[in-house]
Amino acid sequence: MDVRDQKSVDAGVRRIVERFGKIDIVVNNAGISGVTPVDAPDTKDWLDIIQTNVVGSYYVTCAATPHIPNGGRVIMISSVLGKFGVPGYTAYCTAKTGLIGFTRALALELAPRKITVNALCPGWTDTEMARSGMHDIAKDLGISVEEFRRQAMARVPLGEMVEPEEVADLVAFLAAETGSKITGQAISICAGSTQA
């Protein structure tokens, strides 16, 4: 489904429910990033990031919620950039902060049904999107990608990127019975790059 298109999301959720009868776990993981300085001549990229990351998560959650049984899970994939800003990434920071706010409010709304809602906030994670971001930033700074990565990791207390499997393991922990008493949280998995 295209998470930016409500009709596409509704149809996709309908197909899932027809096949499985319910939706126990929702993981809002669709996301895009990019450089969006406030003085950019065009708002297209800014709005596309918001539409994909925030509105898409809203559409999926709204469509799925009636089919989540009591005790189900909703997990948002936010970012440490939802907790601090980065110049030139206003849309991405706005979107990821928005997901944290959505998480906190929705957790209270769904608490009577014992549905937990949490956000994960990864730091630099070894994904294609992160590699692309490093490339773009290095190019803007006039340095090699390797040099930018070295500088970026020097600012991370543990000095390492997060592996995608580590994020998946935390999602699985929250989705299992182990996560049944954790809700409304924005949990960082960032090798120490944020203390909040």
Description:
Strand 1, helix 2 (44-64) and strand 2 form a beta-alpha-beta unit. The longest helix has 21 residues, at 44-64. Helix 1 runs parallel beside helix 2 (44-64) and helix 2 (44-64) runs parallel beside helix 3. With 196 residues, the protein is of the alpha/beta class. The protein has a 4-stranded parallel beta sheet, sandwiched between helices. The chain starts with 5 loop residues before the first helix and ends in a 7-residue tail after the last strand. 32% of the residues are buried. The chain contains 6 helices and 4 strands, in the order H-E-H-E-H-E-H-H-H-E.
Quick recap:
This protein has 196 residues and is an alpha/beta fold.
Please give the structural blueprint.
Blueprint: H1 6-20, E1 25-28, H2 44-64, E2 73-77, H3 90-110, E3 116-122, H4 128-141, H5 145-154, H6 164-175, E4 186-189
Parallel strand pairs: 1-2, 2-3, 3-4
Largest sheet, in brief, is:
4 strands, parallel
Rg from Cα: 17 Å
- The secondary structure category is alpha/beta
- What is the topology, as strand order, of the major beta sheet? 1-2-3-4
Number of strands: 4
* SSE sequence, one letter per element: HEHEHEHHHE
Number of helices: 6
What's the end-to-end separation, in Å? 34 Å
Attribute tags:
6 helices, 196 residues, 4 strands, single chain, alpha/beta, 4-stranded parallel β-sheet
